[in-house]
Structure formats: C-alpha cells, structure tokens
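User: Okay, second chain of the day. Same drill as before: sequence in, structure tokens out.
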Amino acid sequence: MSTETTTTGLTAINSISHLIDRAEPQRVTAEDLRWSAAVAQQLTNRGVEILTAYHNGRRMVLHVERDPNFEGLRGSMIRRQPAAGGHERIYAIQHLGVQVQWTAFEAAAREVANG
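Assistant: Same drill. Structure tokens below.
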C-alpha cells in the first residue's frame, strides 16, 4: 500500500469524523420497551404480525402487516410513495405511547385508449 493511498484514506476518514462524533444512538428506556411489549402482546392476540420494531428518536414504532383495528382508533396516512403499479400508503396510530404503522397498496388507475 502506498503512502499516497494511506494519506487519502485518512483524509476521507477525517473529513467525516465530525459527523460520526455528533451522531448519538437513540436512547430507549425500559418504559419504552414495556409499553411496546404491551402493544406487541395486544397485536399478537389479534393475530397481527409485527414486521419490524424500532425507536424513531421520540417513540417506539411497530410496523405491522395490516390495520390492527383497535376499537375507537383510526389510522392516519403519514406518507404516500410511488410503487410498482400504484402507490403505497403508510398509515399510523398512537396506542399506549407506541406508534403502530402499516402499509396499504393502492393500485394505479388504468388508462383506456380513446377510439
């Protein structure tokens, strides 16, 4: 390995080191875990599969396979993004301080040729 390659590599590392030093891991408290476990148990009892779980910096998020249908709670669309053949809509609700979200697919309208 040449001195030039080593110096270039060190320069690249030093140029991003200020970003790495500022990055703080998300702090998850025992209370966050307790509430997310309680919600996860309720979802499991309803037959809803949990796909992922993470902390978004403010609260725990459980991404599930479908609308959990909690009594009295309706999901709000938080994001819409293009997908093959249509759009994906991400819905979310807050339940016991945990964000539960799911994805619904909306097929694109088919165009009919004039003539």
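Residues 1-23 have pLDDT under 50 and may be disordered.

User: Thanks, on to the next one.
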